[in-house]
Write a sequence for this structure.
């Protein structure tokens, strides 16, 4: 658990934190901070419950694409494949599924 997070954090507070971590991961990835971007994306994914795919699809899809890419850039192909599998499972369109591949 992050030092600033309590066990009683609301679902919305956890989602806000997930969005914050995502926004921190994007520039880290752009700057080739592989360890850092992977950390931020993984923290973001942990904070998001499965129901977020239905309520915040665009965010979740972008998060999982970047999360898979960060794992791959670190050389962890198996974890990247696992993340892509989740994104494909929740993809709403054939185009989104193709983008994952």
């Amino acid at each position: 658990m992050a030092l600033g997070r309590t066990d009683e954090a609301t679902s919305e507070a956890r989602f806000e934190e997930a969005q914050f971590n995502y926004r921190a991961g994007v520039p880290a990835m752009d700057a080739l901070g592989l360890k850092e971007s992977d950390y931020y994306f993984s923290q973001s994914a942990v904070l998001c419950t499965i129901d977020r795919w239905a309520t915040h699809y665009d965010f979740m899809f972008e998060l999982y694409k970047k999360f898979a890419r960060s794992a791959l850039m670190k050389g962890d192909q198996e974890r990247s494949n696992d993340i892509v599998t989740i994104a494909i499972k929740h993809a709403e369109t054939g185009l989104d599924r193709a983008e994952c591949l």
